[in-house]
Design a protein that fits this description.
The protein contains 14 helices and 13 strands. It is an alpha/beta fold. It has 2 domains: 134 residues, Aspartate Aminotransferase, domain 1 (Alpha-Beta Complex), CATH 3.90.1150.10; 236 residues, Aspartate Aminotransferase, domain 2, CATH 3.40.640.
Length: 381
């Protein structure tokens, strides 16, 4: 057999696979039960009416044939309705909505449809560790876009290159930095795109999980945004449907058309019952969305209160289900894992600017979170 194609060799180590392996290895070691506060895996599933719709739809004979390649029209209309009602954005469900098998897939496909070999893609640093995978598969150049802590973790677009840049990825609320979009950042992103010709890709996965009275803020609500970019919406965080693999790319019609074209060639749609359940989630009772948001905010408050008793600087958590914290001198995520039996996600895995930081996940049971906080207070004190 010939050697692996270069595109596979270009792929970075899969951060979360490696992290889970380290946590699993540590869990087998002698000591108190290990507490995993590192993984962002929603611990509460979707509301019951969504599960019931999935079960009913799966019993329908029509569910088992090939679904429409580009998704059920009713599903595209449902996400357009949410954008209109919740974010003040009017979308054409026919031309400005692409249905995706999860937005992790969209991260790769957008890189493939936006970038030629050798062109640049700006990625936030710190940022979600799976962003570079699409850059690698597209044979593009990864250009770090530093997020400045002194500026509220805003991206330094003023200092970003403008030549031969195909796309810039943004993510607010941020994973891992847990900040809402700093004032003016979407306006600046539109101006950057107009000047450079780059497309803007906004990862809106945590958009509905905002704290302290903040409202969800879609990039597409910014004047001019649909002329230059798209936004990714995930059913995983808003509705607890992480394992169902359903999401959307919405916005610029040309980019949506490119994604649809690529998907026509690489898959044959998404299971109809999952799409029907997605319609039920988007158009049915929405009380679970607020309950989920409030649950994470209450946990965030407990984390902040506990860490105030330590030498940790005030951590960051304006939205998402994470807390981003600067580790005290002498403490590393590795030491917390092996010595204190608490797993956090090491900040350096999110980019060079994450060194010395760690991401704590609020997507854990209350019992696990409280027990983990007791150990962290001990470690940080």
């Amino acid at each position: 057999m010939r050697s692996r194609p270069a595109r596979l060799e270009r792929l970075p180590e899969q951060y979360f696979t490696a992290l889970l392996a380290r946590v699993a290895h540590a869990a087998r070691e002698d000591g108190p039960p290990l507490l995993d506060l590192g993984r962002g895996n929603p611990e509460v599933g979707p509301p019951s009416h969504v599960v019931e719709r999935l079960a009913a739809a799966a019993q329908e004979a029509s569910a088992h044939g090939y679904p429409p390649f580009r998704g059920l029209p009713e599903l595209r209309e449902a996400i357009a309705g949410r954008y209109r009602d919740e974010y003040g954005v009017v979308l054409d469900p026919e031309t400005e909505v692409a249905v995706m098998p999860g937005t992790k897939t969209a991260l790769v496909e957008l890189a493939l449809v936006l970038a030629e070999r050798g062109s640049g893609i700006l990625l936030p640093d710190p940022g979600y560790p799976d962003y570079p995978s699409g850059v690698a598969l597209a044979a593009a150049r990864l250009l770090p876009l530093r997020l400045e802590p002194e500026a509220g973790w805003a991206p330094d677009l003023a200092g970003a290159p403008r030549k031969d840049v195909a796309a810039v990825y943004l993510n607010f609320p941020s994973n891992p930095c847990a900040v809402a979009a700093p004032p003016g950042v979407f306006h600046e992103a539109v101006r950057y795109a107009e000047q450079s010709g780059a497309a803007v890709v906004h990862d809106f996965a945590y958009g509905d999980l905002m704290f302290d009275g903040r409202r969800p803020e879609s990039f597409l609500a910014e004047p001019g945004a649909r002329d230059v970019g798209v936004e990714m919406f995930s059913m995983s965080k808003t509705y607890g449907m992480a394992g169902w693999r359903l999401g959307f790319v919405v916005g610029n019609a040309e980019i949506v058309a490119r994604v649809d074209l690529l998907q026509d060639h690489v898959r044959a749609g998404i299971f109809t019952a999952v799409q029907q359940a997605g319609i039920a989630a988007l158009t049915g009772p929405q009380n679970s969305v607020e309950e989920r948001r409030a649950r994470y905010e209450a946990r965030r408050d407990r984390v902040i209160a506990a860490l105030q008793r330590t030498r940790v600087r005030p951590p960051v958590s304006e939205g998402s289900f994470y807390v981003w914290l600067r580790l005290p001198d002498g403490i590393s995520a590795g030491r917390l894992l092996t010595e204190f039996r608490v797993a956090l996600a090491p900040g350096e895995g999110f980019g060079a600017s994450g060194a010395g930081w760690a991401r704590l996940s609020l997507a854990a049971s209350d019992a696990s979170l409280d027990a983990g906080l007791e150990r962290l207070v001990e470690a940080f004190s």
